[in-house]
Amino acid sequence: MITKRIIPCLDVRDGRVVKGVNFENIGDVASPVDMAKKYTEAGADELVFYDITASAEGRKLFTEILTETASNVFIPLTVGGGISSIADFDRVLKCGADKVSVNSGAIRNPGIITEAAKLYGDQCVVLSCDIKRVGGEFRVFSRGGRDDTGMEAIEWIKRCVGMGAGEVVVNSIDTDGVKTGFDIELLDLVCKAVSVPVIASGGAGSIDHFIELFRRIPTIDAGLAASIFHFDEVSISDLKDAMAAEGIPVRRIK
Question: Tens digit of pLDDT for each residue in 52-104?
Fold first, then answer.
């Protein structure tokens, strides 16, 4: 049975890891290099690195801090932020990323997904979607959750997977940083719509929230979180022990 992945997320702004609530009120946390070392040693299955203001500021992702972070990570690393061309994919992969996450860049130019998948393989192309409830439907937002695209989220995700996205990260703006649990309704709809791996992001506040996620949506592949790991509210080893005790397949450090 395929093990469920636990993935810490480093939201990086100006070279520092930060965290907010509902994509707002962003505060400083730590150095991404230090955090990368911490999570590699703690038994995380993968790590996600987002340059959260690159798209909004219309600039390229910081490569120096990414390269240093990647050199300290010995687990798969997904990188996103300001990815808008194949040249960006190439640059980020050369900095040490294993997978590249695209969000606003795909909204502007969906063809980048197909092109990147052909060049690097579907497994390298991660679709990241920032989603919020608007007028009774799930809408896709761009530029770090700032702009409502008007697109319905489930159909957008299905379209992108059809073009070659090999994995989907579902970021629920409604539950981001609130710590009341993952957005089960949204995540269940996504998992039923596509056959590629789906990663849940937004809302984790306790070990029980991860247990609920994997119990209620058996087909979900991974749970992603930030602040509860950053501030040592939940340790990855304790989380994985609890998952194993519940019969949820998980990789543990010997």
Answer: 665 445 445 567 778 888 888 889 999 998 899 999 999 999 989 999 999 99
For residue 59, the one-letter residue type is R
Token pair for 123:
């497994």
Prediction pTM value: 0.90
Point out the catalytic residue in the list 51, 130, 176, 183: 130
Question: 11, 45, 51, 88: which is the annotated catalytic residue?
Answer: 11
Is 130 labeled as catalytic in the residue annotation?
Answer: yes
Calpha distance 48→191 (Å, rounded): 20
Q: Is residue 88 among the annotated active site residues?
A: no
Structural domains of the chain in order of their starting residue, each with its CATH number: 5-245 (3.20.20.70)
Q: What is the pLDDT of residue 11?
A: 83
